[in-house]
Amino acid sequence: MSMELSIPRFWRFKHSIYRLQAARCRSCGRVHYPPKNACPYCGSRDLEPIELPKRGKLVSYTTVYAVPEGSRQYSPIYVGLIDLGLAKVVAELTDIVDPSQLRKGVEMEAVLRKARVDRDAGLIYYVLKFRPAMGVPDVQA
Amino acid sequence: MQVFVEGVGMTKVERHYEKGLSHLAAEAAFKALDEAGGPGGVDYIVVANALATLQDEQLDLGGYLATSLGLRGVRALTIEAGEASGLAAAQVAASLIESGMADKVLLVGVEKITEFPSSKAYRHLQMIYDSESRSYYNVGFAADAAMLMRLYMETYGVDRELLSYWPALMHNNAKENPYAMLNFAIKPDRVSKALVIAEPLTLLDTFPLGDGAAAIVLSSKDSSSKPMAKITAIESATGLGSIELSDDPLIIDSVAEAYKRLSSLTGVDRFDFIELHDSFTITALLILESIGVAPKGKAAEMVAQGSFSPTGPGPVANPSGGLKARGHPIGATGVYQLAEASLQVAGKFPGVQVRGAKRGLVISMNGLGSNSFVALVEGV
Question: Are A77 and B199 an interchain contact pair (Cβ–Cβ within 8 Å)?
């Protein structure tokens, strides 16, 4: 049996993936996501965890047709740059019924979805993706 | 810095199904070594490569290549900085010479990217971006550039068709380059009609997947006999490399900083030509704007007007055809750029030769600028 996906690596990401846990710098006040070991803006190590809102506005987006191995069943893949106020994130977009819905400024919300599957090992990576806002996100801020 | 180019060798960038990593490296390295008067006196081999662990299942590429090239015993290093590996390795090679650790260094950039179907290469190339924010998604290698392209078009009110002049210029420049993978001309209006990779970015906005190797023999002034060119500076800088972390993703911070370091070090800010990292149409435009040869939001228009064409006011951009048309064998690309720049200032480039070229700038980066390198190449 071959294993394509790592369990420990994904497990370590769980707070940033599922809670959108970011880091706020106590020195310069800026927020970045996912958390690094020091502030990417001022270099300070004095960081505190902070959860990002689960709703935000679409800044830019694309529809990917040249999809990487293991994701053909999801093709085409929508990807967006979303401004959550405290910080911007890049995430896969989902539930896109009509691609013309995607415009700059459109309200997006986080939902739990499958991203990668390791068939041999029976592993599934679930992640937060963003969809055009329908009311409440799957996950509470 | 004064490091001399004694010989260069390149293979055509191509889907070399019949040639492996060491075979390609040998073609380029033997040509460079022969041009430099043979392998005698080589102290180090410095190898630039990004994907050998994934595509070729090979660690310590430098060590194995040394023996495979008949250089058993020389010191060997393998340098990886993603797409910028080539210039990163050149920086290490040049510093070995500058520090007196070596008199003569064989710099080899080599990459195989066609050992598996393209979709696997797309997964490998996704590693160019930060794995802590991308590895659990299926964004591929082009999504970030596509979002950046849309941002550019919307921010500056630039039409898609205006961006298409870059690929057309690259294809035109590559026509005469015997080492170019895509050596045929295209008209700008074909670009937007090509297969969509990541909307609005098409197949003609990005590089073809091709293998290749380039090699350069570098030497110190004392051990140099009949150099063709000299490298007078290599600078670099790290950066955010991320559209979400950057306040203004339309400036590549690491390119701007590396270039600032190079120009304050050398006092040089005029070049006859630039070989730059056009992994996508948008990265070419942003590099031109980040080093200030085009004002913000104006690079596409200037390209369309012919400002960077071989017959334009200059500097000439990518006389080789660039990553777009020469090709982009990932970790080897920076060595191709340096070899081409050396041939340009020697007046011996077998493609578009910039008339009277004395001074060239080489720019390489990984992804959207996690790490950027610039080099100044001058005639001797």
Answer: no
